Amino acid sequence: MGAAECPGGNDLPGISPRQISEEPGVDPKEQFDRNWEALTRNPRGFEVFREPLFEAGDHPRDFIDYQCGFAAGHIFRRRPRKILDVGSYRHFILGMLAHFPLTSLDVRPRHPAMEHETALTGDAKRLPLPDGSFDLVVSLCALEHFGLGRYGDEF
To answer: Fewest 10 Å CB contacts: which of 2, 19, 82, 101?
Structure first.
């Protein structure tokens, strides 16, 4: 599928494939900006938005990079057989699934991404699992959303 084609194969009206292609010698960020502007002028009923974390150009490191790298390093060193993930970023979970069977727990119901993921829906403060069920428990950017009260309160 070309960059200016719809899934059905029709070109976007008002936007030529030449507008949505790489131009030799043009900075990729400038080209991205031009392509984005062309798409916003003719959205064909779609919402066109700019994803701030994934724009063309340099890839800035932010807290998510450090947090996921820190957790991945510990997981790699431990080499657990059974992992429980509680509410982490979905893309981090998908990365773990490339290497480990995983049980994921979230308050939002969803389907497992792969056959070796068990997706549970529930409250992390009331785990529906017996103690000692996992070799490793990981939770990235989720604890602050559990409603634990003040700093230092008992879980």
So the answer is: 2
E strand spans, the chain: 83-86, 102-106, 117-121, 136-138
The percent of residues in the chain predicted with pLDDT above 90, rounded, is 16
Q: How far apart are CA 124 and CA 135, in angstroms?
A: 17
3 vs 25: CA distance, rounded Å: 19
Q: For position 26, what pLDDT does the model report? A: 72
Q: What is the DSSP string of 124-135?
A: TTS-SS-TT--S
In degrees rounded to 5, what are phi and psi of residue 29? -65, -40
Q: What is the pTM of this model?
A: 0.56
Give the start-to-end residue ranges of the domains of the chain: 1-60, 80-145
Nearest to 139 by CA among 68, 53, 78, 81: 68
